[in-house]
Write a structure and sequence with these properties.
The protein is α+β, with helices and mostly antiparallel strands. Helix content is 57%, strand content 15%.
Length: 230
């Protein structure tokens, strides 16, 4: 592997990640870079666990989604495990899907049926948080070497920082949008009911609790319908 060329491409990827303005484009740049930069990588994706269920982000190929769905259904698999922070695994590699599987005995045969030959996965983490798993797939067995693993680990380190930064930005934008929406809904209720700001917020909160609906969704309904009642 030409590490000088790899370093040059990694620097270009870092600049591209810095230039991205949203979470989805950032994740797409990460997975596309994995295919482009890591030798033997045919497809890549990011798996995150939300309420214990697997979710595929920025897959470059349908096989990534199919693999994640199998692991979610079986509740086992390398990507599934590495995304579980309680297991404290940060890197894994399945060199050959055609070999007997001592670990993940249910997942490996089904993954083989998808046409996969080998795979690697890396925990995306920063000092403060664990974000999910960056997973790389090859349709050929025995493709991923120690050099491939090193390249993947370096890419994942950059990716984790970019993911965390983009996620923080997305959360901030969502919080600001929610705050604006709640304020707009309160204004509608204040005008319709001739009540104070405190009373308008209380109406929203009471409806949220009574219907077990998030406050922002109650506010959105008021804004969209202009209804006098939340």
């Amino acid at each position: 592997m030409d590490w000088r060329d790899f370093a040059r491409q990694m620097a270009s990827m870092a600049r591209n990640l810095l230039a991205e303005s949203g979470l989805e484009p950032t994740l797409e740049e990460i997975t596309e870079s994995a295919v482009r930069l890591v030798p033997g990588c045919d497809a890549a994706g990011i798996l995150v666990l939300e309420d214990g269920r697997a979710r595929s982000l920025a897959p470059t190929d349908q096989v990534v989604v199919d693999s994640d769905r199998i692991q979610d259904r079986l509740r086992e698999g390398p990507c599934f495990d590495v995304a579980r922070p309680e297991l404290d695994e940060r890197v894994f590699r399945i060199p050959d899907f055609t070999a007997p599987a001592e670990r993940w005995p249910a997942y490996v045969p089904e993954a083989r049926g998808l046409g996969l030959g080998s795979m690697m996965g890396f925990l995306l983490y920063t000092r403060e948080e664990e974000l999910g798993a960056l997973n790389m797939y090859s349709r050929k067995p025995g493709v991923f070497t120690e050099d491939s693993e090193t390249a993947g680990w370096l890419l994942a380190s950059h990716a984790a920082v970019a993911f965390s930064t983009a996620l923080t930005g997305a959360q901030l934008r969502e919080a600001l949008a929610t705050r604006h929406m709640i304020g707009e809904a309160m204004g509608i209720l204040m005008g319709r009911h001739h009540v104070t700001e405190e009373r308008a917020f209380e109406l929203l909160r009471t409806q949220s609790q009574r219907t077990n609906t998030k406050l922002r969704d109650v506010a959105r309904r008021v804004c969209e319908t202009g209804a006098a009642e939340p």
